[in-house]
Fold each of these.
Amino acid sequence: MADHADAVLSALADRFPPAVASAIRVAIGKLLRCGTVEGGFCRFRCSACEATHTVYLRCNSRFCPRCGIAQASKAASEAQARLLNVEHQHLTYSVPAELRRLLFMDRSLLRTVAKAASMATIHAMGTRCRAHAPLPGVMATVHTYGRNLEWHVHVHVLVTRGGLRADGVWQPIKLFPATQYRKLWQYYLLKLLRQRLKTNKSAVHLIGYLHHNYKTGFIVNVMSHYRNGRKAAAYCCRYTGRPPVSEKRIIAYDGQRVTLAYKDYRDDQDKTLELPAVDFLLRLLQHVSPRYQRNVFYFGLYQPAQRRKHVDAVAKASRYAGQIRPVPISAKERIKIALSKMRTICPECGSTEYYVTEIRLPEAANVQTNAKKKTCQLSLRM
């Protein structure tokens, strides 16, 4: 990134919508400052030998090769606190190629895509018991990248293999017919997009064309299923928070060109892609989300307003008694946990008695908050 940052920054305005270009600039700044003095640091002093140690702060960006894996693990841990400890099914909903450019230019529509996938899932599962339609828990993760980093929008849906009925009974569901899901996916996606884009005549015309020309619906793949919520959370580590590309897939870089290894699922063949370094970075950075935009959404039993209320109901109604109940952690406890993970033992004398003497925030954060000082003195005993 450091070798070609200037060339990438100069190309952003012509290649991406303003909100995306702004988010990419922030992401590049984080990557360049990660693990440096400009990125901030925390200085410790050992109480036993008075030795001073400095730990540089990380950017915690999913696009950082050093921080992306940690962010994926964090996402899996957070998901485990949300998922019910029941069987889950994994499905993928693909957006047709004709709509991808529309979503590229307006990233706010990605939430609409996730909502359409969840509505199709909940509708299809509700038909398994028409007298008392069961309400499942749905976690929808929107991905915008394919294996070769092209703009390929699809939704990974993790849904409980069953739902809670209005009469308090847990209704198991084992059947997931792809044909039914494809038609419902087409119906809800086009319906919601038409509602969002009703003033855009070209978009409405395109939606009408897709409605008449896709006779069997849009592509939906029924993937693996998981025996409990913990195994489903392990899925999150792979799909929810991981970076678009891992370092091990970059098999060559000579300063000017990058060679990427990937598997083409259209013919199930291992292939390589060679690109100029700037083009590779632009292809990677196109998947940066605008500020404050999420890519993980919860519906049904997993809606924030529903989750806590239904944990006990699911445990009582089903054979899955060991439900995970999230325990709230205060901001003070989160800070202590984060600092304790930075350093647990003095490398000089082996003592665990140390305290924080100085914390310096990233330079960008200090520019935005001029009222705050760059450094602060703490005496936090660990």
Note: The chain has two domains: 5-59+330-376, 68-244+290-317.
Amino acid sequence: MPVAGFDVQSAIKSENNNKTENSDYLKMTSLAGLLGYKNINRGGLVGFAVQDIKQENQELYLEAFDNQVDFFHVDISDGFVGKKTDVNQLKTLVGSILKINTHMMIQLHFFAESQNSYEGLENQLSLKDYSNLEIYIHINRDNYSNFESGFLNGENVYFGLDVKDIVDELFPWEQFIKRNLLICMQSSNHEDRIQNLKSALKLVRYSTKNQPVITLDRSIDDKVVTSLEDCKLTNIVCGTYLRENIASRYPLIKDLINVKN
């Protein structure tokens, strides 16, 4: 007789069995891969900057998780931009998140002066121990030449770009566009930040036939999302905006981004 399905619960049961998880993310994705399933590009996700460039917000990870944010975003710096990250403190934070649920996707956004500096941070964090990570390396006019071409073409990392570097064409940023891309807006004190963001998004979309999933970062709020003309394959990271009231603001901005996706 033809088989209608399989009971796989025992095969994917998590060793970290608790009230928020009983299935292991890595086991599920491995099984899905064997069955021929592939990850699809998704837009309309809203993440919380659980550690921003000032190394703040860590104390809110439980509240953000309880309010069902789609992913956590973590800024990591060697001092090139912002405050130098305390690696041991960061490992504790990531470990605490994974104890709650290994399914939770975590974006790691590295601000490193060079490839060597990034690789040093990567080794300290032992990233191979984590399964559901997206790694972004921030590239700007000051550090783009400090990374080797072979490294840039690797499959395991994506890149973050500043809006102003894109619109001013200060270096060949097109080479850093892959399946996923992170774009950082100017700070909120720039009156032209939304117009520059719109220009940058158009330049990125027109520069490649393979449309990337774009994550927008830095001072993103409801006004920014409302102003966008097209949010197809677009996700956002919120820090201060959600910090002030995650319970009410997360569903609001989630609805806004999904209406435009």
Note: The chain has a mean pLDDT of 88.
Amino acid sequence: MSEEFWDTIESDIHQTHIIINSEAGHGKSSIVKSIIYELKRRDPKLICKCFDVSFAWWDNAPLNHRQMVTPDNWANIFNQDNCLYEMGDLTEETRRLFVSLIVKQDYAVRRKIREIYGEEGLKKMPLILYIFEESDTFFDSTSLNKKDSASATLRDFIKVGRNFGLRSFCIVTANIGELGTKLRRRSKSLIGRVVSDEDIRELNRKRKKLGDKKLGDAAAELQRFHWLYYNGKKLIGPVSIDPIDFGVPNVKPVDPKAVVEMKIKLEDKPKDVPRSEGTDFMQIVFWLMVAALVLSFLFFR
């Protein structure tokens, strides 16, 4: 495997979203699992949260936790780091609401950390990487342009999530044109075999060639598990990534009551934050614990 591929992915995902696009059965979920495995090997602090609708991740994923999200419990699901959320029982509208709920909680936590600890404190927080299976459900123009809180959260995530260490892999089987332009303009491309004329034309318009073939024409001839990565500056590939058998993870039940009690001394706060804010700060700590992200504060102990 090309080290250039891994190094570029690792660097880019801190700055941008990455769209994974290919025909059905080409290995989109498999390559994302392999990439996550490698990224977590390089950075064990990396946090991943996968939103799945097809059980593609349930029995074979490099994640420590799994939760089944149902119409009865979605509004009260525990926000757990390194977790797979299986959402196949939800309607498309409820999926949007659930995903936006998790993202909004993480976003609010990072904003509060920025407010209290400043930019240096925020830099110590690990990257949160979301994986959206069938991402056109969440990020097509219709979903993003609705006048509701879910759309507002997802638009903010696309536009300014990078400033708070929130990025994503967006997996799409449908034509990439079905994703909203707000996302596509801020994303790089991991490309497998594409078959639609629309996708081929879109890739050809990028005026990038692989040998004597335009990018779209080259993508149309890729073999299964072979990929091209294009970040607007350079084209890497084709690279071949075989699926990894992670087996069923040794999952411990997620227990919202099992909260780690964090003791953060006022003396550890930046000098320019008045001690009188201690009461509000403890309320913030409690809220973070409820949001299941208290472990992140280990970086400030």
Note: The longest strand covers residues 166-172.
